[in-house]
Design goal:
There is one protein chain. This protein has a 7-stranded mixed beta sheet. It has one domain. It has 4 helices and 7 strands. By secondary structure, it is of the alpha/beta class. The protein is globular, with a radius of gyration of 14 Å.
């Protein structure tokens, strides 16, 4: 399974070169309509928040607008910075114990983006299937749904409900 075409053809031209070099693994619903429980999926390469979050923020900035704040799970990160400087702007990061480890919320200037966070150790096929389903308009997957991130590598997105 490959990355959705709209990310590579339509939106990649808007992504700053600095974000492209970070190779962020992000699948976003293309219209920004918020008709599903999630707006997409993100598959970080590690649990190092300082290393992973700048690329994610730059991608969301380019596609959905400037990110002002991120809300993340209180557990699961090697480090928990409370502020990052990205592109000369300060981004506030909040961590909550009640936030599911599989959910990240980005608050942008005009919108909100809810992402399924796929653990770094997840196999490529399962990760891409989960992210593809999470970005599908009208998805009904709840972020805490562990089936979406531990699905067999050959599971189709239709099986992730």
């Amino acid at each position: 399974m490959s990355s959705p075409a709209f990310i590579h053809s339509d939106f990649m031209r808007m992504v700053p070169d600095s974000a492209k070099s970070l190779s962020c693994r992000l699948f976003l619903e293309p219209t920004g309509a918020h008709r599903g429980m999630l707006d997409g999926g993100w598959w970080p390469r590690s649990t190092n928040a300082r290393a992973e979050l700048p690329g994610l923020v730059l991608m969301i900035n380019a596609i959905r607008g400037q990110v002002n704040r991120l809300v993340l799970a209180g557990a699961g990160w090697d480090n928990r910075p409370h502020m990052l400087t990205i592109g000369g702007r300060f981004i506030v990061l909040d961590y909550f114990g009640s936030q599911p480890a599989t959910l990240l919320t980005a608050f942008c200037v005009r919108s909100r983006v809810d992402l399924l966070v796929v653990p770094p150790a997840t196999g490529r096929n399962a990760a891409e299937a989960a992210m593809t389903y999470a970005m599908t308009t009208g998805n009904r997957i709840a972020a805490p749904c562990r089936a979406a991130i531990s699905a067999p590598s050959d599971m189709s997105p239709a099986g992730l409900v």
